[in-house]
Fold each of these.
Amino acid sequence: MPKDPAHDLADDTPTLAGFDGPAHVAIIMDGNGRWAQARGRPRLFGHHAGARRVREVVECCPRLGIKYLTIFAFSTENWKRTQVEVAGLMSLFRRYISRELRALNAENVRVRFIGDRVRLDAKLVQLMDEVEEITRCNDRVHLTVALNYGSRDEVARATKRLAQDVADGHLKPADVDEETLPRYLDTRVLPDPDLVIRTSGEARISNFLLWQSAYAEYEFIDTLWPDFSAAELERLCRSFGTRDRRFGAVAK
Ligand code: IPE
Ligand code: IPE
Ligand code: MG
């Protein structure tokens, strides 16, 4: 797909005035199943409704000053669900990615995936590779989709590569510090999230970006993901702007 010529123009989207919002927002998109159940529909109905919310959220990022958006789509633990739900989700991902690619590229969105691709269907992985390649030069919003992602799995895979580098003599154990491991994580090219949002009323992280979110601000909101909106994201970003992030120091 050719690059949209509009990309060469400066990004002149007006951002909200006097607004000190998060540059990187990460979202645990939870509550699709309960949203569907409340309507007497199968869980997959909720997943389809949830997938449709993503575009509006991506599109409002430039106005809110969000440069990086990371969304949790499928965890390493989600394989425990029924075969019907897992297969339905995998086919939804394939359809969603093919359908949204054109719009995302036209919006100058760079798409990346994090997580372990080994267990994913080869056709899905091929599509993920293609999307990353096609959107490689885009830079208005960096959208990262966590698919078969779990933080503990990511850290284990990273540690394996790090240990191999030590074994091969590329790295000395004495040189390993807190800057080293992030270079081996799936997120190595991304800044840490400033704000992590979880929908659906659950106040847990469920194995999402554990290392990266050490100093993130958190918002746990009751809204089920298919009801989430740009207006709600704006409210959370404004609230973020009022927080005093001390990073262990004393308030100014
Ligand atoms: C989040 O919604 C989507 C995925 C985990 C794939 P859920 O499917 O977890 O919805 P609830 O939590 O059961 O309502
Ligand atoms: C977290 O939601 C994973 C995603 C949103 C993809 P879950 O619904 O899987 O988390 P738990 O099981 O409630 O912890
Ligand atoms: Mg859930």
Amino acid sequence: MTPIKECLIGKRTDINPIWLMRQAGRYLPEFREIRKNNPDFINLCLNSNLSEEITLQPLNRFGFDAAIIFSDILMIPYGLGQDVKFKKNFGPCLGNLDVTKLSNISESDFTNNLSPIYELLGNLKKNDKLKNKDLIGFVGAPWTLLVYMINKVSPKNGLVSNFFSDISLINNLLKILDKFIKVHIRNQVNAGATIIQIFDSWSGLIKSDFDKYLYDPTLSLVNYTKSLGVPVICFPRGITDYSQFCKIVKPSMINIDYDVDAKNLLKSVDIPIQGGLHPEILLTNKAHLKKEVNKYLEIFKDHPYVFNLGHGILPETKIDMVEELVRIVRNYK
Ligand code: 1CP
């Protein structure tokens, strides 16, 4: 059994399992080299040979316990026919939202549009480098995808002022997303994903109607993934009550963000836990890194825990700090 699977069934493992959110990406020189020659990000995600190489880059360097496929949460709006572009030094830009068009797309059109992602998983499944490691497929949660699809750009500077003006549009989109996110989960599982992670990167922006935007849609995906026999990790970044989230949604594992009081959370959560370390700690120095990493390892020493960050690794992270991080985690007794 893989170290992460052992953790998921509640066992303490001999090694402390570790992987990092956004582990394949811009902090790696070998990724930047490929990216330089592939300016169109969506095309890169749809190139199953290059995306296989990129997925394996962090494993080759650091020996993490899981590969997470090189793809993006915005491949779902793309697969549904909304235009998605990534602009340099700006981020994602989505095109007009035509709900009639989205409502007419069939499951097979959607699956065809994203078929290189499933090919990627099929190829990785056969790769010896993933022996005794997990292969993580992922989706964006309905709320976070809704945010990008309506907002059209990153909500890091807030939601557009008329975000909630068309409730019937929102309700329609939530239904469409529930259906097609499930199709994407099922296709990834059928192609070889051994775990699914649900990224709700912008759940911290939900201020009311938590059932409608957070709990109900996530629970629906969690139950669906479990029914396929695959564990599911949730990352509801920035929410204030992780304990309540775990009680209602019951994921197989919860990924905490860096604002979570880990010690306090342990009092009320009994499922396996992943993550927590602030990615900025990797920009400091080795002594400080050791102190902060040990804090998490100490708190979770008697709890099933997968080491990870409290959000994605930053592009300016130095390779030797990641190497040091892995050494600290592996050597902790
Ligand atoms: O070279 C580049 O400019 C591309 C940068 C990049 C990369 C490497 C983007 C654009 N996406 C990715 C890959 C990616 N995205 C992965 C696979 C790699 C890995 O994890 O190892 C995953 C899991 C994601 C997931 C993702 N995309 C999330 C959820 C996780 C998170 O960080 O919160 C989100 C919010 C996105 C949207 C997105 N894609 C890319 C950017 C720059 C963004 C964020 C935009 C924003 O700030 O709103």
